[in-house]
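Hi support team,

I'm filing this because I wasn't sure whether my run with iron/sulfur cluster finished correctly. The job status page said complete, but I'd like someone to confirm that the output block is well-formed before I use it downstream. Pasting the exact inputs I used:
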Amino acid sequence: MEPFKLIHPNDQHAAIASSGAANVKFIAGGTNLIDLMKLDIEKPAQLVDINSLKLQTIEALPNGSVRIGALVKNSDLAYHPVIVKNYPVLSEALLSGASPQLRNMATVGGNLLQRTRCPYFYDTSFPCNKRVPGSGCSAINGYNRNNAVLGTSTQCIATHPSDMCVAMAALGAIVHVEGLTGKRQIPFHEFHLLPEQTPQYETTLKHGELITAVELPPIRYSAKSHYLKVRDRHSYEFALASAAVALNVSNGRIEAARVALGGVGTKPWRSVEAEKALVGAAADEQSYRNAAEAALNGAKPFKDNAFKIELAKRTLVRALKTVGGMS
Ligand SMILES: Cc1cc2nc3c(=O)[nH]c(=O)nc-3n(C[C@H](O)[C@H](O)[C@H](O)COP(=O)(O)OP(=O)(O)OC[C@H]3O[C@@H](n4cnc5c(N)ncnc54)[C@H](O)[C@@H]3O)c2cc1C
Ligand code: SF4
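And here is everything the job wrote out:
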């Protein structure tokens, strides 16, 4: 690990003011950043510890939204009564991630920015375009069982590893950020980037911008939602495939739907195609299967991960059955 300076500002403006230089980074729970620093993948000259900032609250707003501070711990969010009751998909996604100890440290802001678990990204003896732009992608012709089948490019096929983000994608969350030039709000589907030709750029957050909160807009039927994660072992493991779904079913017909997939996409993968296939259809197995076909239409398998396409379809069908039942 390279030597670095650590500062502890206790107000938001001071934190933002000290983060402008190129090799300065914020640190929250440190559960991803410190690992990357130990491996010399991240080498900040200065860390800005943001843990004293007042970004730890979860508030129900008068317009029906819920505003979650960026420093809310993953476990506190998962067990918050409003989230458990109105957004079970988010609570379940959080509780499926990492381990209790990690969830007690990990924050909402840090979870949004966690980096891929592609093994070649972590092993600095291999070429990796995300770590060293232009060096090549070791996964495309290498061992790629855990890599993505949706949103890949010729430069990178790494999955986005977050569970929380899949639920937030389905819920159409809004990311609130503040930088030296002011505040802005980023719709969730615009926050994470596809790898395309520049996999080193992963989000639309500008350098020095602080994530201050995530807002969950009111969705009438979000209480009828579910997160299903399929993985090699039942705990402490990233998804091979996962599905976040919310459904509004009336008299056996689907009136509204939200669908997002994890473990298979290069970003948290909201599927408007699956949502379109569901709305107006009967709440039955055939409709769920049609939605799964639509969601994975265009998926591109690699040498070791073709199984993920059928796995993701079955994961989505099972999640939809759990929420929508079968008419
Ligand atoms: C062994 C292990 C298993 C795991 N398993 C899972 C899993 O199954 N599912 C899953 O979803 N996750 C999993 N994780 C990842 C874990 O969820 C993330 O490490 C965690 O959410 C990161 O949050 P943090 O607060 O610790 O971030 P940090 O490590 O502090 O920061 C991560 C990044 O975010 C930036 N940052 C943090 N907060 C802000 C902010 N407010 N504004 C701007 N930038 C910010 C930092 O500069 C850094 O670049 C696992 C991690 C480990 C180590
Ligand atoms: S898939 Fe992406 S992260 Fe993995 S080796 Fe290729 S460029 Fe690096």
